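Hi support team,

I submitted a single chain yesterday and got back a structure, but I'm not sure I'm reading the token output correctly. Could someone confirm the output below corresponds to the sequence I sent? I've pasted both exactly as they appear in my results page.

Thanks,
R.
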Amino acid sequence: MLVEDHIAFRQSLALLLSHQSDLEVVAQAGSIAEARELLDSRLDVAVLDLSLPDGDGRDLIGELQRANAGISVLVLSVTIRPGRLEEVLKAGADAVLHKVASPATIVEEVRRLGGSVATPSTTTAGAGFRGLLTTAELRRIPLLGR
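Hi R., thanks for writing in. Yes, this is the structure output for that exact sequence:
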């Protein structure tokens, strides 16, 4: 499932993913309300924007996980400040990528989350996180300030 309010970005992402022989885009939504209507679809991976017209995409993560046991959630965002990153990971996101990540990086992460490949996660968090961090490293960030 792709949940992204910018239709051109969502369509480009859908085209990118659907051109992969091992991936299929089964649902698309431009808002939280539209995504909720699609929760009964069988989903392995959700690619989710945080800034949606009808609310915070973070609030959808738990609903996706309750409706689809075993689903993985990839958050794509333009900017994520460190405190916000912690909130997104606590909400249950499995990975976070900056929206300007390369197409190959996005495809690789969707494959990894969907179980198509067994590679370590590389996650870029945007503002203040110029390098690539693993999900485990991102989860340790809040601990550094203690």
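A quick pointer for reading it: Residues 118-132 have pLDDT under 50 and may be disordered. Let us know if anything else looks off.

Best,
Support desk
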